[in-house]
Amino acid sequence: MRTAICPGSFDPITLGHLNIIVRAAQIFDRVVVCVAANATKTSPMFTVEEKVEMVRRVTAPYPNVTVEVNRGLLAEFARQYEGSVLIKGLRAASDFDYEFQMDLINKRINPDLETMFLTADQRYTFLSSSIVREMARYGGELRGLVPEEIIGMIEAKANTQRG
Length: 163
Ligand code: ADP
Description:
This protein is about 40% helix and about 20% strand.
């Protein structure tokens, strides 16, 4: 069984992330969405539990997609799924530079681990979690940026953080 691992911070999951996950689910037997719990990204908007809940909600229609939390190194996490491949989305050349570096580091830790790239859908090349957070903070329209099922959750969070 071939497993794709789709890693990210998903703070929150966007339609761009979901597009990559669904495309991977059509190619691979199974997709594990790996929510990073390490705090390298400063001041996340959502807790890990909230991120997982949102990913679970929007991937519920896809039976071969599951969600896991990773509290350590991704290259170590991947070892538990034999022959698994990391799937990353590429929006721009800047994504490539970063991902190329990550792949080299991952291979030092786990030489068998391959990374494959899917180009971002043209509708979502501009889209990132940070844009969604910014929009949410200022009460902007979230439809078209994130799945409808989680808009309420994001707006509620933005409201509490606005105080
Ligand atoms: P972000 O860059 O939005 O903070 P993550 O760190 O959670 O998101 O990114 C996880 C993965 O999802 C990365 O491989 C990233 O390139 C990919 N990704 C993020 N946004 C998009 C998008 N709009 N289209 C395609 N891939 C994306």
